[in-house]
Design brief:
GO cellular component, one term: plasma membrane
Number of strands: 21
Strand order of the largest sheet: 6-9-10-4-11
CATH topology of the largest domain: ABC transporter transmembrane region fold
Distance between the termini: 68 Å
Subcellular location: Cell membrane
GO molecular function: ABC-type transporter activity; ATP binding; ATP hydrolysis activity; ATPase-coupled lipid transmembrane transporter activity
Radius of gyration: 35 Å
Pfam families: ABC_membrane, ABC_tran
Structural class: alpha/beta
Number of domains: 3
CATH architecture of the largest domain: Up-down Bundle
Helix content: 55-70%
Strand content: 5-15%
Number of helices: 34
Shape: elongated
Protein name: ATP-binding cassette subfamily C protein CydCD
Length: about 1100
């Protein structure tokens, strides 16, 4: 993290113009500040001498007004430049990741954090830090040169002390780099953990573990808070140290000037000019230090992107990219395209080996080949043999450890096809087509159009992961997308697994139609489909060394490297600070005291210099000298204390509120969150909540600080000249009025800006959290432009919203500086008149005249305070839009189910819908169904008939829209919700495996389960061999699970729970017949004698043997008996 790295400028030429413009504006602003110091010195000297004020006063007012215009211009240009550069960096980053296999980009949680918060932090780096760096190099030189012309001795002091500031900044900055990297580790952990628990929230709700995760969310947030506080303490200490050094240096100049004035060796105007010019030499360097720490996150992100190869010069970026080989064996791995037009060309793998991270070998010396000409190749083999991995290698999504992969551009329809939040049209357009007629034709070809036509057709809204469609409908949508694509190689991963039996022949016909013009490789457990193929591949699992019958249990695995929350060597624990409202009040008082010290310092310094010019006895100046020193020291110290306390309070509040927000999401799961993407939820719980809590730091504390400082300034002026105090108070009220108007204007625009930012965040998160499945559809070289165009469109909407916002902010800044100019001019005239009339002495007239200028920077920050408050209110509205929904399940019951073992479940005319308003057709038509204890019932019927909806009602994830749901004659809505859910175990059609160990994934169903019981459950569902290959036994972290392994892990979880009712939604969809028979048979055998009720949804004929089948398309009244 160097002070400046030209990689960004070289890689993204579009950033050069905005950075150059901001730098020019910054240098001009510094020059104007130097002119202001000179004019102010002349003005104060004339107030004291009684000379005519008009010429210099007019020039000073014009200079202050020009500073306001430049400050407003800086705000406009900085915001536009920051957004423009962030847009360029984000586009380059996403484009880079979309062209790389899994091994060539960061982990998902790191990618999400980097593409959202990380790149947003680049705005501060570009818009604030880089211009400050240029100003820090130019303006001090201008100030020293001017000071050299005014007073060479003072210039010498500045030249000797100024280099100390960058030296101290560099020393503290090196420590800050470590702290920032640790903070980003905590940020990635927070983002990754939140994405994981939100995706698995239905599972957590089912097994009653969601509320336990509230504590985990709080703990992760606390780790992020601790890492952030450590970083901020260092950054704030750096700022305080630089300010203290600058104050001491200016004090040295003041002492020299004062002594020379006292001995008559200097004119008053020269002394005033020296004192007012000296801070202008130090301020740009101090600002560089402050902005460097504010931009540390952005600098860290840019450094990481540079190491990844994202930020490369434009000339190098134009070189065609090739898929990189694994670094572990780059010399033995090649990926070769199929030669164009070669009649004998082959597609396949030669000597390929591959292992998922943390897993044993998945593929070992695999050689497969099939003609590149049109045709159908079936890939078969048991679950876990690596079939999906073969498809991902052919698509270029993974890089083999060794061997050669030969394949043309491919389209992969995965087991869990990527369906992004949006419409059906949006998801079909991922392959590049925009022809509605072609889309409808493809949907008709797979038999999905009739269901969509009855809704909103191509405009049918889809939620996260295809919420709103059944698993079979999602599979058919993925196949329709493959039909619309033009890739010469089509890879289908179990396309008929979740599809109703009546619809399977239609899909067979569609696949054969595809194979007539393209090479299709299909992974399938469907014997009919396999028999239709003209070529076949078969895989068997790689033999693994058998583990002991009772594996050694290894302690929980920890991630290598330093714990982000652990203290560094030599760390001294800071003094605790109060939190809550007490801490907030303390921070406000500290901030007000700090700003008041600044006002007092400027005013007292003016008094001291003017008094010294009268050549008094030195001892009469000692009180003022001590006061100047005290104010100079206390200002940075109090500022440091205020920032530490305020940020501690805010971050503590943030960690607590984030956990509370997560707790409020639980009752909304899954029905009310299904249509919201994980990106939108991440924005809500992280960024919007940040803005809400940020109000304390950026609005509440600064507003009280400004108010306290204004009161002190008004009292200080009124003490010697009451009318001047009234003018200062009037100026403060005018600034407050401008802020109120600015808040009203920004409040109207902030909602649009916050909404636009939220849309951008959730689009980026939706993409970065699904990079591999998105690449499966779009390919590595093209097709992703539509997604990037969507991100670009969202960024442009945000830019327009922010432009409206920043225009209002800039006008507020200009207006505030005009108030400063008017107040300064009025108070100067009053002081001049009062001194001429003998009402006040010259030193006190100087003191009064300097008060408005001392308040200038404080008042200039008030528009930003109003903006922060408006943004917080807009973010709070977005937050409430999510959390304020009515739960889909009533939690009014207090009675516990009065059951001794397995209850009888009865649906009496139950209809249900997932839509919150209940509008439109029911997703489940009214159904009468009685499930006796111990019964085994299979729900059948076409996709979309409501089978999964019926399971949701039985699991109490959804309340009936019509009818009643009874447990042993008790209405479910009268029973305690948690107690009712404790009776039911659920295996979803797309079961979730959490990013943790095998043990952690299973004990959430029953925390008191022993290791022996866990292993027995795994073996019962045919995961015994899989378990024997795990390097760390139950403590092995789950990565690279196949669909079948994930399904069986969910079956083991349900078995281990011991709950009397088990709901199975397509549990064997991704299993071959033999494995499905062993897994389901093992589950039922283990439950033998327990009289557990089982409800199965399946489209596989082989799964239905021994089950009472209920066809929901013809069901009226159905009673079942114990099996």
């Amino acid at each position: 993290m160097r002070p400046f790295d030209p990689a960004l400028i070289r890689a993204l030429p579009a950033t050069r113009g905005p950075v150059a413009l901001l730098s020019v504006v910054g240098v001009v602003s510094g020059g104007v500040a130097i002119c202001q110091a000179l004019l102010l010195a002349v003005l104060v000297s004339r107030v004291v001498s009684g000379e005519e004020l008009s010429p210099v006063l007019a020039l000073l007012v014009g200079t202050l007004a020009l500073r306001g215009v430049l400050a407003g211009t800086t705000e406009l240009v900085a915001r536009r430049a920051g957004l423009q550069v962030a847009e360029e960096v984000r586009a380059a980053t996403l484009r880079h990741w979309l062209r790389r296999p899994v091994e060539g980009r960061p982990e998902q949680d790191v990618a999400v954090a980097r593409a959202t918060e990380g790149i947003s932090a680049v705005e501060a780096y570009v818009a604030r830090y880089l211009p400050a760096l240029v100003s820090g190099g130019v303006v001090p030189a201008l100030a020293v040169l001017t000071l050299l012309l005014v007073d060479p001795w003072s210039a010498l002091v500045v030249v000797l002390t100024l280099p100390l500031l960058p030296v101290f900044a560099a020393l503290i900055g090196m420590h800050t780099q470590d702290q920032t990297e640790r903070r980003w580790g905590a940020m990635a952990l927070l983002a990754g953990h939140f994405l994981d628990v939100v995706r698995g929230l239905p599972t957590l709700v089912t097994y009653g573990r969601a509320r336990a995760q509230v504590g985990v969310v709080r703990e992760v947030g606390e780790r992020h808070r601790e890492a952030t506080v450590r970083t901020l303490r260092t950054a704030f200490l750096s700022t305080a140290a630089l300010e203290l050094l600058a104050t001491i240096s200016v004090a040295m100049v003041a002492v020299a000037v004062g002594l020379r004035l006292a001995y008559g060796a200097m004119d008053l105007v020269v002394g005033l000019a020296a004192i007012l010019l000296a801070p202008e030499a130090y301020w740009p360097v101090r600002r560089v230090g402050a902005e460097f720490h504010n931009a540390a996150d952005g600098a860290t992100t840019l450094e990481a992107l540079k190491e990844e190869g994202v930020l490369v010069p434009a000339a190098a970026a134009s070189v065609p990219e090739t898929r990189p080989a694994s670094s572990a064996a780059a010399s033995t791995c090649t990926l070769e395209p199929v030669p164009a037009g070669a009649s004998s060309a082959r597609i396949g793998l030669t000597g390929v080996c591959y292992a998922h991270p943390g897993r044993a070998r998945t593929l070992e010396d695999v050689t497969l080949a099939t003609p590149a000409s049109p045709g159908l190749t079936a890939l078969t083999g048991p679950s876990g043999a690596g079939k999906t991995t073969v498809l991902e290698l052919l698509a270029g999504l993974r890089t083999p450890s060794t061997g050669t992969v030969t394949a043309p551009g491919a389209h992969l329809a995965a087991q869990r096809p990527v369906i992004l939040p949006g419409t059906v049209r949006d998801n079909l357009a991922l392959v590049g087509t925009t022809d509605d007629a072609a889309m409808v034709e493809a949907l008709e070809q797979v038999g999905l159009w009739p269901q969509l036509a009855s809704r909103e057709g191509l405009d049918t809204p889809l939620g996260d992961d295809g919420f709103g469609l059944s698993a079979g409908q999602r599979a058919r949508l993925a196949l329709a997308r493959a039909v619309l694509g033009d890739a010469p190689l089509v890879l289908l991963d179990e396309p008929t697994a979740n599809v109703a039996a009546a619809s399977v022949p239609t899909l067979h016909e569609t696949i054969l139609h595809l194979a007539a013009t393209r090479r299709v490789v299909v992974v399938t457990h469907d014997p009919v489909l396999a028999a239709l193929a003209d070529d076949s591949w078969h895989l068997e699992p790689v033999p693994q060394p058998e583990a002991a019958a009772t594996p050694t249990l290894v302690p929980e695995v920890t991630t290598p490297g330093h714990d982000p929350a652990a203290p560094l060597p030599g760390h001294v624990e800071p003094v605790p600070v109060p939190g809550g409202r007490v801490g907030l009040h303390l921070a406000s008082l500290l901030g007000g005291a700090s700003v008041a010290c600044g006002v007092a310092l400027t005013a007292t310094s003016g008094w001291l210099i003017v008094q010294a010019s009268t050549r008094p006895v030195i001892l009469t100046l000692m009180v003022a000298i001590v006061g100047v020193r005290a104010f100079g020291i206390f200002r940075p110290v109090l500022r440091y204390a205020e920032r530490v306390v305020s940020h501690h309070v805010a971050l503590e509040n943030l960690a607590e509120r984030r956990a509370d927000v997560f707790a409020r999401l639980i009752p909304l799961t899954p029905a009310r969150l299904g249509r919201r993407s994980r990106g939108e939820l991440l924005t809500t719980v992280v960024r919007d909540l940040d803005d809400v809590v940020d109000e304390q730091v950026r609005a509440t504390v600064p507003s009280w600080s400004a108010a306290i400082a204004s009161v002190v300034g008004a009292l200080l002026a009124a003490w010697h000249l009451p009318l001047a105090g009234a003018v200062v108070a009037g100026g403060a009220l005018l600034v407050l009025l401008l802020a109120a108007v600015g808040y009203a204007v920004e409040r109207a625009s902030q909602q649009a800006a916050v909404d636009a930012r939220g849309e951008l965040q959730h689009r980026v998160t939706a993409l970065t959290s699904r990079l591999l499945p998105v690449q499966a559809v779009t390919g590595l070289h093209g097709g992703s432009s539509l997604l990037l165009d969507g991100v670009l469109e969202a960024e442009q909407v945000q830019r327009r919203a922010e432009a409206r916002l920043v225009r209002a902010r800039a006008l507020g800044i200009v207006g505030t500086w005009l108030v400063v100019a008017a107040t300064t001019a009025t108070v100067a005239v009053l002081a001049w008149q009062a001194h001429a009339a003998g009402v006040v002495t010259g030193p006190y007239a100087a003191l009064v005249a300097l008060v408005p200028v001392a308040l200038a920077d404080t008042w200039a920050g008030v528009p930003e305070i109003a903006g922060a408050k408006a943004r917080a209110r807009a973010a709070a509205a977005r937050l409430e839009a999510v959390l304020g929904q009515s739960p889909a399940v009533a939690d009014n019951g207090t009675d516990r189910p009065a059951v001794a073992a397995t209850p009888e479940l009865t649906l009496e005319g139950v209809g249900a819908t997932w839509r919150p308003d209940g509008a439109g057709a029911l997703d489940l038509a009214p159904l009468d169904l009685t499930l006796a204890p111990g019964s085994r019932v299979a729900l059948t019927g076409p996709n979309g008939i409501g089978k999964s909806t019926a399971l949701a009602v039985l699991a109490r994830h959804l309340d009936p829209a019509t009818g009643r749901y009874l447990l042993d004659d008790a209405d479910a809505t009268d029973l305690d919700l948690d107690a009712t859910r404790e009776l039911v175990a659920v295996v979803d059609d797309e079961p979730h495996a959490f990013a943790g160990s095998v043990r952690a994934n299973l004990v959430l169903a029953r925390p008191d389960a022993t290791d022996e019981e866990i292993v027995a459950a795994l073996r019962a569902v045919d995961l015994g061999y899989w378990f024997s290959t795990l390097p760390e036994g139950l403590d092995t972290l789950l990565t690279g699970l196949s669909g079948g392994e994930r399904a069986r892990l969910s079956l083991a979880r349900a078995l281990l729970s011991g709950r009397p009712v088990v709901l199975l939604d397509e549990p064997a969809a991704h299993l071959d017949d033999a494995t499905a028979e062993r897994a389901l048979g093992g589950l039922l055998a283990a439950d033998a004698g327990r009289r557990r009720t089982h409800v199965l949804v399946s489209h596989r004929e082989g799964d239905l043997a021994g089950w009472d089948a209920v066809d929901l398309s013809r069901a009226a009244v159905v009673e079942t008996t114990a099996g």
